[in-house]
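Weekly modeling sync, notes
Attendees: AB, CL, MP (scribe)

Item 1: holo prediction request
CL wants a bound-state model with NAP before deciding which constructs to order. AB pointed out that an apo prediction alone won't tell us much about the pocket. Agreed to run with the ligand included and paste results into these notes for async review.

Input as submitted:
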Amino acid sequence: MERYVLIGLRGSGKTACGKRMAEKLRIPLYDTDALIEARAKQSIPEIFSDLGEGVFRHMEREVIASLPDGAAVIATGGGAVMDPQNIQRLRRKAHIILLTADEETLHSRIQGSGRPALTTLSDLDEIRHLAGVRMPVYRGLADLCIDTGSLRADEAAARIIRLNGMRRRNPELFTETLAELNCDTPDDLINCPLICGITGNPVSHSRSPHLYNTLFPEYAIPGRYLFLPAKSAEDAIRIMLAVGAKGLSVTIPFKEMMISCIDEPDGDARAIGAVNTVISCDERLYGHNTDWIGIREPIRDLRGGDALVVGAGGAAAAAVYALQSLEMDVCIANRTEKRGEVLAERFGCRSSPLSSSINADLIVNATPVGMKEDDGSPVPSGLLKPDTTIFDLVYTPPMTPLLREAEAAGCRIIQGTEMFIHQARAQFRLFTGIDPGIDRIREVLS
Ligand code: NAP
């Protein structure tokens, strides 16, 4: 597949590197900014000042939609891949290469370029601002990251071509590691541009491989998602690096330990104290937490109000973080009261022994109670009032004793599968840059 899409901030070398690649490979170069200028018969600064950024983005979308299929190098404008339609179009049957450079290099390269400012900030502050907003999206899209800071354009081009647009894998280590995992994999996996997987102990019950391996081909993403069981969080990272995986879904019991095994946990992961998604890019490991998004999305309409979280483990921390992001007044009730108090102190909320006198518009069960056949409900029946919403994070089985009792009492109920579906949507985006939409995920998992 000789189709390479170069993405990155302004000044990262997309046009210069793209030209060298196209020359060496003797394939066409499509520079989206140059194509827009040719169509509009105006320079980019003129389009921005005469017509505005909105019209420019519209033209950019049209240019990207009209790019011919087949072998090519495509150099994109820095903002092009912030648009979901552009992402889907560019991602198809292509290697996505992220070019990076330190901010001083970017700054010096854009001096005198005549490109319009996108904010009212100084050049350096604009670079920092755009890096904060765009880099997570770029990293999600990228199959390979190349730091062009100390490379000439022809050197960066030669490196991408030598690597065939894919991250480097050591064949012996790759084969040994997969053999050690007893992993059932296709023969040519080593040549797969995008490998992701799920780690934890155990992982064999996970539906994520089915979900991802169904969705990848739908977006023409040359990817494979594997079971990657490990002995510890450190061991999971060893395996991730040995197989050259770009993304790792992390499940019990490694989420909390994973935070100390990676280079950059984001703000959400640090606040919750757990990482459930690791992205490997530019030789660094980035950590995210999508569990809290999985809890927030199904209850977005419940902003404000009183909430009760039952439990004080990792899922409870993600729940408290999600509910506070919706400005809810949260009370934690945990079997071991001291642990509930510690979590409440961390988040600046209340804790209380579980009783029927707690006021709650929303109750979240963040304990495993309900997973076993003979489990009862972890919530006193006096709390199940018709105007209360009950969200049970337990997802096997989807219908728990708590949810059955709540439904009979006239409560609105939300199953734990909803958390899984919404967190998976956010995680798929972190791995690929693409939002597959909630309905399609629900359909694949149904
Ligand atoms: P965890 O860290 O082990 O915490 C478990 C919590 O449940 C602790 O607060 C524990 O209380 C409490 N607990 C355990 N057994 C109990 C019992 N018999 N009665 C009352 N409280 C009990 O586990 P976690 O990672 O937070 O996960 C909790 C549950 O969330 C999981 O079992 C899973 O069902 C669900 N979950 C769902 C999703 C999803 O996608 N839907 C994702 C993650 C987790 P003590 O402090 O007293 O031990």
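Recorded for review: The mean pLDDT is 94.
Action items: CL to compare against the apo run; MP to circulate these notes.
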